[in-house]
Amino acid sequence: MNLHNIPQIKNTDSGNFFLLAGPCAIEGEEMALRIAETIVKVTDRLQIPYIFKGSFKKANRSRIDSFSGIGDEKALKILRKVSETFGVPTVTDIHTNEDAAMAAEYVDVLQIPAFLVRQTDLVVAAAETGKTVNLKKGQFMSPESMKHAVQKVLDSHNENVIVTDRGSMFGYQDMVVDFRGIPTMRQFATTVLDVTHSLQQPNQTAGVTGGRPDMIETIARAGIATGVDGIFIETHFDPANAKSDGANMLDIKYFEGLMENLTAIRKTINGFK
């Protein structure tokens, strides 16, 4: 995967890791623009190639009354406005074959959720749009098995594919990151570490997923040290009141310090022979 193939992406020759970051879900225009503005200022200063992330809808919910979105077209138009306002590419996740063509009209990268990455028709539908496809590794899948998901994209005549590790299930209510998987997956695709989803604590009795945001910097530092190509982080200015995944999101007030530390580690790694 050549980052230059993603429209509007900047700082691709800086030698830094690239970043997919934003809120879990698009809750409204003001919040999306506010978060994007904060991130863009930091990534421009630190020369981090940046893609704004926001889900236009949330189909995988623990409970039927959980927030699922503000309306598909409304949210997708907000993603387009973020891109036009700040000159950055955008990524959103899709859940059905029909979503692929619709979302491709608004965003630059289509993301396949971890629970759906084995759905051949969905992966092929995303690939056939010609957009870059980000494949989330299933929590139930080995790093080695992701080569088959990647091959589905390649066989659909699309070479723009990314693999994202988001942790593996550990028992019923925890995730772990097996850092051995990063060099394994880098053999067949550009590889990203989804830091915040790797810290989820699913299957809580309340029906709301928990998390360990206090461990975000620990996991992120380890990912950079392991040589991951990109980092994925969900962030919000008020995680406690976010409408989705607030328990594991990064409070945006810590974002700049985290990026400074990760950039310093990346510079050190780049100096290794």
From TrEMBL:
Q: Which GO terms describe its molecular function?
A: 3-deoxy-8-phosphooctulonate synthase activity
Q: Name the source's superkingdom.
A: Bacteria
Q: Name one GO cellular component term.
A: cytoplasm
Kindly state which reaction or reactions the protein catalyses.
D-arabinose 5-phosphate + phosphoenolpyruvate + H2O = 3-deoxy-alpha-D-manno-2-octulosonate-8-phosphate + phosphate
Keyword annotations: Cytoplasm, Transferase
Q: Which cellular compartments is it found in?
A: Cytoplasm
Functional pathway:
Bacterial outer membrane biogenesis; lipopolysaccharide biosynthesis; Carbohydrate biosynthesis; 3-deoxy-D-manno-octulosonate biosynthesis; 3-deoxy-D-manno-octulosonate from D-ribulose 5-phosphate: step 2/3
Q: Which GO terms describe its biological process?
A: lipopolysaccharide biosynthetic process
EC number of the protein: 2.5.1.55
What positions does the domain DAHP synthetase I/KDSA occupy? 10-262
Q: Which family does it belong to?
A: Belongs to the KdsA family.
Instruction: State the NCBIfam families in the record.
Output: KDO8P_synth, PRK05198.1
Q: Provide the protein name.
A: 3-deoxy-8-phosphooctulonate synthase
- State the organism named in the record: Flavobacterium rivuli WB 3.3-2 = DSM 21788
Q: What is the lineage of its organism?
A: Bacteria, Pseudomonadati, Bacteroidota, Flavobacteriia, Flavobacteriales
